[in-house]
Design a protein that fits this description.
Helix content: 10-25%
Shape: elongated
Number of helices: 11
Largest sheet: 6 strands, antiparallel
Number of strands: 12
Strand content: 15-25%
Oligomer: single chain
Structural class: alpha+beta
């Protein structure tokens, strides 16, 4: 998309914006009022569209346009920011605004890890169905082919992403240089398993007031030894289904310390001890309630030092997917490994009517059961 718009407007770094729910001329005039007159504009399929400069270098105006000013109650605006930083060759951004608020925002560079806004999952069902997020979207060729470069399919992914967004919103195709035809789609993503019942299954995965660390690739004795060496001797431990696990009373160990250790076990710090990189995978679960601070509800960060992420899955020294659970916190997450199961359970999505019942997954028990089923985790209780 960057290429075809860039070629259409050489010398310009442009945004392509679509609006509906307000008169087209009102939208165009609102862009002009902020010093971003349309370079091209039109109307089709109920949408007004405009291509405009992202910045105005001639007048030293580097302020980004405020789309909320042209998005009154009842209006919608969808925007492709094609070249947010051409000097560093950063990928495009997508924004969706409604009623003067940002519903969804993500970068094409890391949309598989994180999307933000009032509802980061506004398009998750469509992205998952297109194989753009979730397990089917992860390229694994580099693990077996040393010569494989994942960037080789970046352009194809970008085109499929643009088309998925356009189809979801019913956006028209402006009469500009069109992108090439759709590349062959990826294999269809696996159908999500039937979620556990709303009661969270047969019992808690991790006992209330405890932390649990699961690891595969090392045995129970080795896991317990490493934890003890780090200053966190386990209260209980076990081994089942290919997973070794240890558990602690949350009051006895620092939550951020044992959560960090779960990630360290998979990275370079323990490569030599465990026989090479990428041998160990871990899952950290917290059985502590969410604290009262808003961080873990509104952002993809741990609540506070005493309340680590409820769930972290780590490989290669990095948290691959992590989030807090209960009360809709799952939408503020990093990574989409479990997006299919969460959508199927009604925990995330564009519409989530299950939350009309305040008790629905309030404690995150349903989410923890989904996590346990996905990874095949044994209960530590």
């Amino acid at each position: 998309m960057t290429t075809w718009l860039h070629d259409t407007f050489p010398g310009h770094e442009v945004n392509l914006a679509f609006a509906r729910g307000l008169p087209a001329e009102t939208f165009f005039e609102g862009l002009r009022a902020q010093g971003r007159p349309p370079l091209a504009h039109g109307e089709a399929d109920g949408w007004a569209w405009a291509v405009h400069d992202m910045i105005d270098e001639e007048d030293d105006d580097y302020e980004l346009i405020d789309y909320h000013r042209v998005c009154p109650q009842g209006a919608e605006i969808a925007v492709f920011v094609t070249e947010p930083c051409s000097a560093k060759a950063h990928g495009p951004h997508f924004e969706y605004h409604r009623d003067g608020r940002t519903v969804l925002f993500f970068s094409f560079e890391d949309y598989r890890q994180q999307r933000v806004g009032d509802n980061p999952d506004h398009l998750s069902a469509e992205l998952f169905a297109a194989g753009l997020i979730g397990p089917a979207a992860e390229c694994e060729e580099w693990r077996t082919d040393d010569g494989h470069d994942c960037y080789e399919h970046t352009d194809d992914d970008e085109i499929r992403l643009v088309r998925t967004i356009a189809d979801a919103f019913g956006l028209p195709s402006p009469p500009l240089d069109a992108p090439p035809l759709d590349p062959p789609p990826l294999d269809a993503p696996a159908v999500a398993a039937e979620p556990a019942g709303a009661d969270g299954g047969a019992g808690p995965v991790v006992a209330p007031g405890t932390y649990a660390l699961y690891a595969r690739g090392i045995d129970m004795a080795e896991l317990a030894a490493v934890c003890a060496e780090a200053g966190y001797p386990a209260r209980t431990r076990g081994e089942s289904g290919g997973w070794a696990w240890v558990a602690w009373d949350a009051a006895a160990v620092p939550g951020d310390g044992v959560s960090d250790l779960a990630g360290f076990l998979t990275g370079f710090r323990y490569d030599e001890r465990f026989g090479g990189p990428d041998r160990v995978e871990t899952v950290f679960l917290s059985g502590t309630p969410a604290c009262d601070c808003p961080n873990g509800r509104d952002r993809a960060i741990q609540h506070c030092a005493d309340h680590p992420f409820h769930f972290v899955n780590s490989r290669g020294g990095f948290g691959r997917t992590y989030f807090n659970v209960g009360g809709g916190r799952e939408s503020r997450r990093h990574g989409d490994l479990l997006v299919g199961e969460l959508l199927a359970a009604g925990i995330i999505g564009r519409e989530t009517p299950a939350y009309d019942d305040p008790a629905f997954n309030a404690d995150g028990a349903l989410t923890l059961r989904i996590i346990a089923d996905h990874f095949g985790l044994p209960a530590t209780v």
